[in-house]
Amino acid sequence: MNVAHHEIQLADGARDAYGPWMTGEEEVPVLIVGGSLVGLTTAMLLGHHGVPSLALERHAGTAIHPRAGHFQLRTLEILRQVGLDERVRAKSLEMYSATGGINAVESLAGRELGIYIKELNEGVEGFSPTVRVFINQDVLEPILRERALELGAALQNRVDVVALDQDGDGVVATLRDLEGGGERRVRARYVVAADGNRSRTRARLGIAMQGYGELSRSITIYFRADCSELIRDRNQGVIYVHNPQLRGFFRLDRSGGTGFLVINTVGEDVTTPEAIDVQTGLTDERARALLRAAIGADIPMEIVDVALWRAEAICAERLCEGRVFLAGDAAHVVPPNGGYGGNTGVQDAHNLAWKLAAVVRGEAGPALLDTYDAERRPLDELTVRQAYTRYATRVVPERGSDGVDPVVPDIELEIGTVVRSSAVIGDGDDDGTLHLDPAQTRGRPGTRAPHLTLPDGRSTLDLFGRDFVLVHGPAAHAPPGIAACRLDGEALAVYGIEAAGAVLVRPDGIVAWRAPRMYEPAAVRQALNTVLAR
Per residue in 37-62, pLDDT tens? Predict the structure, then answer.
C-alpha cells in the first residue's frame, strides 16, 4: 500500500506510545532512514521489542522489482521470531521450486557447464528449524511492512531526509515532503540509516567505503518469455550463463515464463575495460539481442524493464557516528553472487534492534550500542570478501585468483559466524576465527546458540528473541527473574556444558556467556550487567 504525503500509518496499539505524532510534537525513539528491506526489518524488530519507530522512504511504495531473492537460514530464523517464516515459505513455493540449485550453462537452450550448488537446502538438515528459500524482494517487502505496522511502527513514503543535526540528547532530522515540498523537523534519540548503496546519510557523516571497488557496470533485464521447455530438465534456481556474448545469471519463476537476467560482462575477453561496461551504448535492440543470446533460442520475448547498476564489493570504514548507525547497503555493498546483500542487512538489523530497544527502555547503558560496530563490521567485511570470491570464481574466473579469498562454506557464513565485543564474555576458547562449522560451535560465546528440538516440538531457537535466556543442565538453576531452559542428556553436549553448567543467550540468539561445568547464581547477574553495560 502506498502512503500519501503526511499520512502516517500506525498500528492501533501504537497510538498511545506514539502520542507526539498525534499532537504535533514530532518525537520518536528511533528514526529509520529508508523503508525498503532493511529499513522495514529494523522497524519490525524494534516493534517486536516494544519500541516505536518511524521509517521514512523516498519512493512511493515498496520494491517494484524482484532484486534480492535468495534468503538464507539465519534470515528465515529471524523472520520466525516475528511469526513470518511459514508465510514466507508458502509464498516462496508459489513462485519457485523448493529444490532449486545453482548451476552454469552456455544458454538456457545450451549445455550445462557445471553445478555450484546441487540443491538449495542440501546439507542443512538438523541445523535449523527452518530452510533457505527463494522469494522476490518485491513480494517479501509488503509482508515485512504489514508486520511492522502490526508491531507498532510508523511508516511514511515520499519523504526525504535533508539534514541530520546531533546533540547530546538525540538527533534532529529535517524532513522534506517530496509531494508538497514542505519541511518539518523530527527529534529522535537514535537514527538508523538504511538508505541504500548510495546512502546520502553515510555521505553526510563523512564515512568512507573501502574494499574492491567497482567490479562492473551491470544491467538487469526484466522480461517475459516462455522458457518452460528450455528449463524443464534443469534444477531450477539460479542459472549462470557463460558464452562468448555475455556473463551473468537468470532467475525464472517456476512457470518459466517470467524472470530477469543479470548481465555483468559482455564479449569473450572479460579482462578488458569494455567487457565490464554493459551499459555504454545500450539500446532496446542491444538488450533484446543479449537476452536472446542468453536464452539461446529465438522465441517470443517481451522486455518489461532494464535496470542499470554497478556491481561493487565495499564496506563502510565504520558503522556509526554518534547516534546514527548504518545498516544494509548503506554499510556494505556486494555483488549479488551468493545472495549476501539482503541477508547481511537483515542480520545488521537483528543485531542492532535489540540493543537500541534495551537502551531506549533504560535496561542497558549507552555503551551497549558501541558493540554494534565491533560485532557487525568484521562480519560485514568478511561477507564483502566472500561475495567477491563468488563473483570472481563464478563470473570472471579468467581474471585469476589474485586478491580472492578461499571460499567459506555458505552454512558457516549463515549460522556459524563469531562475534566479539564487550557484550560477549569469552571463556578462553577463542582462536580469533570469524566462522566455524555450526556443528562445532557448541555454545561458544559469540556464536549463534545451537538449534535443538525440544520435547514439545519447538526449537531452542524459539526461546530466544525478546529476553535473555539461561540454558542450563539438570544440576544447575537459574536465578529468579531470568527466563530459563533446562537441557538433559545428549543435548548438553550440543551446548558445550555439563550437568551443572549453563550458557546465557542474548535476545538475538547469540551466546553471551558460558560456564561449562558449574557457576554461582551471582555470576549470571554479573554477566548480564557486563553485557548490558550497566
Answer: 999 999 999 999 999 999 999 998 77
Complete edge-to-edge strand list for the sheet that includes strand 469-472: 483-486, 469-472, 502-505, 511-515
Mean pLDDT of the 248-270 span: 90
> How far is C-alpha 291 from the chain's CA centre?
30
**Integer Cα distance of 96 and 132 in angstroms:** 12
Show Cβ contacts of residue 284 under 8 Å, excluding neighbours closer than 6 positions: 303
Q: Cα 515 to chain center, whole Å?
A: 31
Q: What is the pLDDT of residues 209-220, one digit of tens each?
A: 999 989 999 999
Class of domain 9-65+138-209+314-399: alpha beta
Each domain of the chain, given as residue ranges in start order, spans 9-65+138-209+314-399, 213-312, 421-531
| Nearest residue to 346 (alpha-carbon basis) of 306, 376, 304 | 376
Closest CA to 197 of 214, 183, 182, 179: 214
CA 133 to chain centre: 13
In this predicted structure, the answer to whether residue 494 has a pLDDT above a threshold of 70 is yes
Rounded to whole angstroms, how far apart are CA atoms 91 and 53? 27
Using 50, 70 and 90 to split pLDDT, how confident is the model at 244? very high
pTM of the full structure: 0.92
Write the CB contacts of 311 (distance below 8 Å, at least 6 apart in sequence): 214, 215, 216, 217, 218, 264, 335, 336, 391
Radius of gyration of the chain measured on its C-alpha atoms: 24
Instruction: Provide CB contacts within 8 A for 183, sequence distance 6+.
Output: 162, 174, 175, 176, 177
Burial of 189 (0-12, 13-18, 19+ CB in 10 A): middle
- The pLDDT value recorded for residue 338 is 86
The answer to whether 526 and 479 have CB atoms below 8 angstroms apart is no
DSSP element (H, E) containing 187 = strand 183-193
CA distance 378 to 383: 9
Distance, in Å, from the CA atom of 293 to the CA atom of 245, rounded to the nearest integer, reads 7
What superfamily in CATH does domain 213-312 come from?
D-Amino Acid Oxidase, subunit A, domain 2 (3.30.9.10)
Residues facing 306 on adjacent strands: 221
In angstroms, the CA 294 to CA 301 distance is: 12
Instruction: Answer for the pair 222, 304: CB distance below 8 angstroms, yes or no.
Output: yes
List residues bridging with 161 in a β-sheet. Answer: 175
